[in-house]
Amino acid sequence: MEDEMRALGIGDDDIAMMMVTIYWGINTNTRQAAFWLLTYILQYGPHYIDLIREETAPASPSGPKTSIQDPNLAHLHDNCPLLNAMWNETIRLSAYSASVRFLSADTVIGTKILRKGNRLMIPYRPLHFDASIFGVEYPVTEFHLKRFMVKHGQTLTYSDNWRPFGGGSTMCPGRHVAKRFVMLFVSILLHRFDIEAVTKNVPAADEGKPVLGLMSVKEGEDLLVKVWPRS
């Protein structure tokens, strides 16, 4: 990639910015999304693992049942409603992003005056716990994989309250790539291995302060699993 960019005459600063976005995505939100998604899948147990295997198997119709080879990403994205619903519910609960805006003029919101020259931080997490939007079918503080599958839930990702990737001009540009990467990783993992959770509870997340994406696991918490190849 670097050689191709240099061949196009792209300078060091621009190359560095491009590389940072890639490493940032790999080392922060993508791996954390995969961790939380697997955590919730394992908490539901073998039944849901089997359902995910069943709906993702057509992504590699020519491969053995214990592997996904030459995967069809379009199938994972368009024809796996259970996996997609679990992805949406995972990032609803684990997203802790915020936007920061510079106040170019005095602004009045309700009874508050926001003075020009200051910065305003807008956390999005409370939007995902709005019971009037996300709590119509199930409690907002709990993980429910069918929240995004019922009739009402199929429109939740179009709600103004849906902000797992931020919003406006700073919305995460890699959100679609991250989703496909995580869904592919989880699919391959569940087809190649049997996995059992040793830790019976979902580890606590670090909710100390807003971050640029998804929350990490709280220090001292973790998910322990047993992993062995499928026969």
From TrEMBL:
<dbReference type="GO" id="GO:0020037">
    <property type="term" value="F:heme binding"/>
</dbReference>
<dbReference type="GO" id="GO:0016705">
    <property type="term" value="F:oxidoreductase activity, acting on paired donors, with incorporation or reduction of molecular oxygen"/>
</dbReference>
<keyword id="KW-0349">Heme</keyword>
<keyword id="KW-0408">Iron</keyword>
<dbReference type="Pfam" id="PF00067">
    <property type="entry name" value="p450"/>
</dbReference>
<comment type="similarity">
    <text>Belongs to the cytochrome P450 family.</text>
</comment>
<keyword id="KW-0479">Metal-binding</keyword>
<dbReference type="GO" id="GO:0008395">
    <property type="term" value="F:steroid hydroxylase activity"/>
</dbReference>
<dbReference type="InterPro" id="IPR002403">
    <property type="entry name" value="Cyt_P450_E_grp-IV"/>
</dbReference>
<keyword id="KW-0560">Oxidoreductase</keyword>
<dbReference type="InterPro" id="IPR050529">
    <property type="entry name" value="CYP450_sterol_14alpha_dmase"/>
</dbReference>
<dbReference type="InterPro" id="IPR017972">
    <property type="entry name" value="Cyt_P450_CS"/>
</dbReference>
<keyword id="KW-0503">Monooxygenase</keyword>
<dbReference type="GO" id="GO:0005506">
    <property type="term" value="F:iron ion binding"/>
</dbReference>
<feature type="binding site" description="axial binding residue">
    <location>
        <position position="172"/>
    </location>
    <ligand>
        <name>heme</name>
    </ligand>
</feature>
<protein>
    <submittedName>
        <fullName>Cytochrome P450</fullName>
    </submittedName>
</protein>
<dbReference type="InterPro" id="IPR036396">
    <property type="entry name" value="Cyt_P450_sf"/>
</dbReference>
<dbReference type="InterPro" id="IPR001128">
    <property type="entry name" value="Cyt_P450"/>
</dbReference>
